[in-house]
Amino acid sequence: MQIDAHQHFWRYNPVDYDWMTDEMQVLRRDHLPADLKPLLDAAGFDGSIVVQARRTIAETEWLLQLADAYPFVFGVVGWVDFESDQLDEQLERFSSHPKLKGVREVVQDLPVDYAASDTHVRGVGQLSRYGLTYDLLVKPPQLPAAIELVRQLPDQPFVLDHLGKPYIARKELSPWQDDLRELAKSPNVFCKLSGMVTEAQWRRWQPEDFHPYLEIVLEAFGPDRCMVGSDWPVCTLSGAYAEVIAIVRDYISRLSSSEQTAILGGTCQRFYRVDAAQTG
């Protein structure tokens, strides 16, 4: 089974998606399952994991409704309010849905040390008893706090989104590479090979620009803890869906067939507990 481990859906409006600037005009429209399905089919993917794009309970509910309606949406990574005194109720309600696989907070937009804050650690610490994973969305300066977070919660499954968003456009490796290797020492942390083209120079990148970053990540995590993701439709700011997937597919072609199988779907299926019987 091959799975796109990271994509988004939305019905566009300028209020909820005010982060979409004028240079992001391509994103300012609806992006829905019917738009994604032909892209998945052309790339040979059996399905996908949809990830939250807004910090609202309403979006989590909507994504679960879409997952119910479209069998190729194998799982949802939603949002819950870690600041709320109703967090337990939210987790209990959403975790009863078989396609709610995990949650994510938009840590990249929060203070540099937020990942290791008491509120965040306490909230993420409740996920494992509901069988939920946690997507780490951080920028390089936030990796040290992420390292502290995962060390405090060794039984919680984590996945690092977008390689930790290294500064590819500036061709910077340090200190990102040292922090990433330290994070990878925690065996409960996985990594998504996603989100690279939007960290490069938009539409001016070459596949070779990503090779140093992919080499570091694969050496640190190994194929059994890496999974490919498109970050569609955000990726379209800098490259077409097929081009984005080809970056990873072409790079890992040097690996064994079993390692490629892991990156292209096996790791994702295991991490997000995708039941083949439920995928339709």
Q: Would you kindly provide a written description of the structure presented here, covering whatever features stand out?
A:
The chain has helices at 33-43, 57-69, 87-95, 118-124, 143-152, 176-184, 211-221, 241-251, 257-271; strands spanning 3-7, 47-51, 73-78, 100-105, 133-136, 158-160, 189-193, 226-228. The chain contains nine helices and eight strands. With 280 residues, it is α/β, with parallel strands linked by helices. Strand 5 (133-136), helix 5 (143-152) and strand 6 (158-160) form a beta-alpha-beta unit. The model has no long low-confidence stretch (mean pLDDT 97). The longest helix has 15 residues, at 257-271. It has a single domain (3-278), classed as TIM Barrel, CATH 3.20.20.140.
List keywords for this structure.
280 residues; TIM Barrel; 9 helices
The CATH superfamily turns out to be Metal-dependent hydrolases
Low-confidence stretches: none
Order the strands across the largest sheet as they lie in space.
1-2-3-4-5-6-7-8
Looking at the structure, the CATH topology is TIM Barrel
In CATH terms, what is the architecture?
Answer: Alpha-Beta Barrel
Number of domains: 1
CATH class membership = Alpha Beta
In percent, how much strand structure appears in the residues?
Answer: 5-15%
> Into which percent range does the helicity of residues fall?
25-40%
The helix count comes to 9
The whole-angstrom Rg is 17 Å
Average predicted confidence as pLDDT: 97
What's the SSE pattern?
Answer: EHEHEHEHEHEHEHEHH
Structural class: alpha/beta
Give the number of DSSP strands. 8
Shape: globular
- Cα distance spanning the termini: 12 Å
State the major sheet: 8 strands, parallel
